[in-house]
Amino acid sequence: MTASTQKRSTIVALLLAGAFIAILNQTLMITAIPPIKDEMNITANSAQWLTTIFMLVNGIMIPVSAFLIDRFTTRQLFITAMSVFTLGTLVAAIAPNFAMLLAGRVIQSAGGGIMLPLMQTVFLMIFPVNKRGTVMGLVGLVISFAPAIGPTLSGWITEHYSWRMLFYIILPIAIIDIIIAYFVMKNVTEVSKPKVDILSIILSSFGFGGLLYGFTSAGNSGWSSPVTIIVITVGVLSLIAFILRQFKLENPMLEFRVFKYSIFPLTVSIGMISFMGLIAVETLVPLYMQDARDFSAVDSGLVILPGALITGLMSPITGRIFDKIGARWLTITGLFLMTGATFFFSFLDDKTSITYLTLVFAIRMLGVSMVMMPVATAGLNQLPKRLIAHGAAMDNTLRMVFASVGTAIMVSIMTTAQQKAQTSGEAFPGIVGANTAFLVLSFVTLAGFIVSLFIKNSKPSDIDQESYEKED
């Protein structure tokens, strides 16, 4: 579908603004977790649900978004998603207890989960293949910079004001975005009115939800706990049933056939590992600094800020580089930096300086900026237009779910190692826990680096290329 430059600019600006505040909320709670944990008398494993539940519901909503994009107009979907997000923000802001705060985060995420795949799908439809790297660099700016700036913002606010102010700041921005969209948002996607499969939604919710709850339960109750074993088993079985059902449906909720296209499976795997590492590190660093070292929320936010700024500056640049040289060397270099930096985080002690933490985190975020959107764009470029919405949904679903489950596992590893260190009489059990989690994460990131060696710079098939040119 052809779009005028003015129409494109309006659509791009609105979607970027909406997606930015939605994705910002993925990590907005990270440095606020310690004070919320103390105020509401809950464990670290329970408190990190404020972050992981947001990403989990994102992960559940993203595959539904592919159906919604086909079912409703761009304008209807954007305004509805932002309205739901705004309602959740209000509920969280006035929450009198942890259960209500968690409910607000769930409602927020239900709206926010639609924003990212909607933005990616629309951008890939209104821009030709040879300009996608540049425009997806803007998407990368949102995906990497927004969650990276979240802990810094929340650290400063929770140091000077109540953590509730985090939501009161987001609220007017969301309302303004809705008002502007009501008057100027245009329709881009085509409406085909597919049927919704309720059973698929139920199975995916039990599958992804069961895994996250199970891994979080493991941190609180242990891996041998009956609750942990039962919930993880239910999650795995539900997920298997969900995947098998998708192959039988004429209009699947999540189209697994996108994996037959060239490098798409490799790019999705790398995206999952990279995003999980991003969220896990941003969760572990504040916990180490505030719980094990007694640094303030502002200190932990400032450690993360330079890395966030680097990501913001680099994302548009890596988008342009991608248009010229492809994803292969960007991804390999980026994952090399991420692996090395994660490994350096596993040597923390009671004297580790803020300068060391800041520098290592900044190097890691430089790597993230070279990986996240180049691999996503490379994978989606392999797909024909009819599958772009499903490819974007698949990529984002697996990223969010893997980040949710992976972060829960890392926090569980940290708390388990900390408990063992306490039992054995270690002087700094919190630091031992953090180092153990970072060491495990470094090996996971190394696996991503190894996968990146198999990425090849390739273009869509000639048939698909002709289709792009004809339609664009």
What topology emerges from the helices and strands here?
Layout: H1 5-27, H2 33-40, H3 44-47, H4 49-71, H5 74-93, H6 98-126, H7 132-160, H8 165-184, H9 198-221, H10 226-248, H11 264-292, H12 297-325, H13 328-344, H14 354-380, H15 388-423, H16 429-452, H17 462-471
Write a concise keyword list for the protein shown above.
472 residues, mainly alpha, Growth Hormone, Chain: A, 2 domains, globular, disordered C terminus, MFS transporter, transmembrane transporter activity
Mean pLDDT: 82
Helix content: over 70%
Looking at CATH, which topology of the largest domain would you report? Growth Hormone, Chain: A
Assigned CATH superfamily of the largest domain: MFS general substrate transporter like domains
The main β sheet shows up as: none
Overall domain count = 2
Shape: globular
Number of strands: 0
GO molecular function: transmembrane transporter activity
Subcellular location: Cell membrane
InterPro entries: EmrB-like, MFS, MFS_dom, MFS_trans_sf
GO cellular component, one term: plasma membrane
